[in-house]
Amino acid sequence: MPVLGRFCRESYTDPLELYARLKQLGMDLVTVTDHDTLDAAETLRRFPDFFASEEVTCRMPSGTEIHVGVYDITERQHIALAERRNDLPRLLAYLSEQRLFFSVNHIFSALTGRRALEDFDWIEEFFPALETRNAQMLGPNNLAAAQLARALGKAATAGSDAHTLRSAGSAYTEVPSARNKEEFLAGLRQGLGRAHGQSGGYWKLTRDVFAIAGGMLRERKWTAALLPLAPLVPFVTLANHLVELWFARHWRHRLGDPRRYLHARPPLTPTWDTVRWFEETPA
Fold first, then answer.
1. Measured between alpha carbons, how far is 32 from 48 in angstroms, rounded to an integer?
2. What's the pLDDT at 10?
3. Is the separation of the CB atoms in 54 and 34 below 8 Å?
4. CATH 3.20.20.140 fits domain 2-280
5. CB of 173 within 8 A of CB of 51?
6. 209 close to 191: Cβ distance less than 8 angstroms
7. The pLDDT value given to residue 3
8. pLDDT number for residue 281
9. Could you tell me the residue ranges of all domains in the chain?
């Protein structure tokens, strides 16, 4: 819910508490994909079973935005991603050059605004994975993403997209037989990832919004002036719920059978620099 960001942070969860919670749930590896930042990673790098990741807000050539999950990155790579996130061909070239695994997150959600048919062309051509289970997205939205991933032969990922401690670990990615981070990421690249966990829902989102508001009140006492607006929260989350359902239904209808639409269109023509890079890079 973007409106929330005008008044508060997206999460008030302490990174160490988050790590402890995820280990308690039985996670062998832990990563955090903050939006356009590595803040939590600075605290958690000390743990051998942690690796830093990021959800990059990326502008598509159509002018729309998507969220791209990029996994196992360094501070230098984070800076480079920030410099390229508004130029998709440059971003894709850098991700490939650095051999980074990346995915499109919640592609059937209205969270990032409008979508264009051209966006799905780019996804088919250049993105290796789709997030098919997001614990904050509704079941129909996740189902649409899973169907698209299968139709296009994309690797599957999952994430809790948790903004509160209670929701952490409610969706996760498994790579069977992976014994360490390297084998886990290699398995993702080979399409061996399995998405597990819950989808989102109206009550879960409403609960989390109230929890975030509580964190906001503890950190910024002056926001108590907003308390009279609290009764409106269930109505706002209901409106969000209905918009998400409409968005997924609309785009599933627009795409129809993804294979029939995507394979019928002419190939994309990226910028010359991107074409040159892909041609020169060894397999």
1. 14
2. 66
3. yes
4. yes
5. no
6. no
7. 43
8. 41
9. 2-280
Residue 217 main-chain phi, psi, to 5 deg? -65, -40
Q: Half-sphere exposure of residue 61, counting CA atoms within 13 Å on the CB side?
A: 16
Cβ neighbours of residue 118 under 8 Å, at least 6 residues apart? 60, 61, 62
Tokens of 158: 């999952």
Owner of token pair 């130029």: 87
> Does the pLDDT value for residue 60 go beyond 60?
yes
- Give the helix/strand (H/E) hosting 224: none
Overall size of the chain counted in residues: 283
Identity of the amino acid at 229? L
CA–CA separation, 238 and 1 (whole Å): 11
Per-position DSSP letters for 199-211, written without gaps between them:
---HHHHHHHHHH
d(CA 137, CA 143): 10
Per-residue pLDDT averaged across 13-40, rounded? 92
